[in-house]
TrEMBL record:
Segments forming domain ABC transmembrane type-1: 71-263
Membrane topology qualifier: Multi-pass membrane protein
GO biological process terms on file: transmembrane transport
Domain of life according to the entry: Bacteria
Residue stretches spanning the membrane: 12-30, 75-96, 108-130, 142-162, 183-208, 241-263
Name recorded for this polypeptide: Sugar ABC transporter permease
Alphabetical keyword list: Cell membrane, Membrane, Transmembrane, Transmembrane helix, Transport
A cellular component annotation (GO) from this entry: plasma membrane
Length: 278
């Protein structure tokens, strides 16, 4: 094998793998522009003619609720979840990583053990609590738990990052008279930005794509998210409007793609350094 082949072979393999990974997105985009009779019958990737009316129908939304309203609902829930996880998980992580208190190791081990607890196990008790509080069919059950550091994965992620930060900075702040909260807010939190952005990215994507939890708590169509709207798009019509449904799928994917491309360098930096220790 000559030098030129050795140089281009990895790039060729990577390009082929990229095409395979991007094919589902290409299929989704092409299918969103197919006529109704070609969605399930034609195996061709590209439609015979572009059916732009699919996007017109998709923008009308479902049950009288427009796509703009659905995206606003989803953005409200995702934004609240991001804010809650970043604040509460960073506070809990700072306590585990920097503060000394009784049974801290036991509590940290118990917190890590909750990672193995399936979400469905706690779903029914949570639903009973929110139902008794009269918060069902509102956004509070989807946002409020995020402000209570219930995401053990993100707490563990930020703890690992904070343990790698130099303690000399915090000791200097303590000498200057800063308390634990001031040190956390002014010193540790800015230094932990890569881990916080990683937490924000994953929280945003997981919340935006969440279907099961939103289906449990949201009933009124005007409170639907884009994910719930997709599930009810076909059911509301006697005919299977797959074209508009795929068009709405493309619209729902765009915010995630934009969010990822804006913050992807912070994601790589956070994941690369969160496991390092100084």
């Amino acid at each position: 094998m000559n030098i030129a082949t050795k140089r281009w072979l990895p790039h060729t393999i990577s390009a082929a793998a990229l095409l395979v990974l991007l094919y589902p997105l290409a299929w989704l985009l092409a299918t969103s522009l197919k006529p109704a009779n070609e969605v399930m019958t034609s195996l061709d990737l590209w439609p015979s003619h572009l059916e732009w009316s699919n996007y017109t129908t998709a923008l009308d939304g479902v049950s009288g609720v427009t796509v703009t309203h659905l995206l606003g609902n989803t953005l409200l829930i995702a934004g609240g979840a991001v804010l809650g996880n970043v604040l509460s998980c960073s506070l809990a992580a700072y306590a585990f990583a920097r503060l000394r208190f009784r049974m801290s190791k036991v509590m940290f081990a118990f917190m890590v053990a909750t990672l193995m607890l399936p979400h469905h196990v706690v779903l029914i008790p949570q639903y009973i609590i929110f139902n008794r509080l009269g918060l069902v069919d509102s956004y509070w059950p989807l946002i409020l738990p995020k402000f209570l550091a219930t995401e053990a994965f993100f707490v563990f992620l930020i703890v690992q990052f904070m343990r790698g930060l130099p303690r000399e900075l915090e000791e200097s702040a303590r000498i200057d008279g800063c308390g634990p909260f001031r040190t956390y807010w002014s010193i540790t939190l800015p230094l932990a930005r890569p881990a916080l952005i990683t937490t924000a990215i994953f929280t945003f994507i997981w919340t935006w794509n969440d279907f099961f939890t939103q289906m449990i708590y949201l009933f009124a169509p005007e409170k639907y998210t884009i994910t719930l709207a997709l599930s009810s798009f076909v059911d509301q019509s006697s005919t299977s409007a797959y074209g508009p449904m795929f068009a709405m799928s493309v619209i729902s994917v765009l915010p995630i793609v934009l969010f990822f491309f804006v913050f992807q360098r912070y994601l790589v930096q956070g994941m690369a350094t969160s496991g390092l220790k100084g």
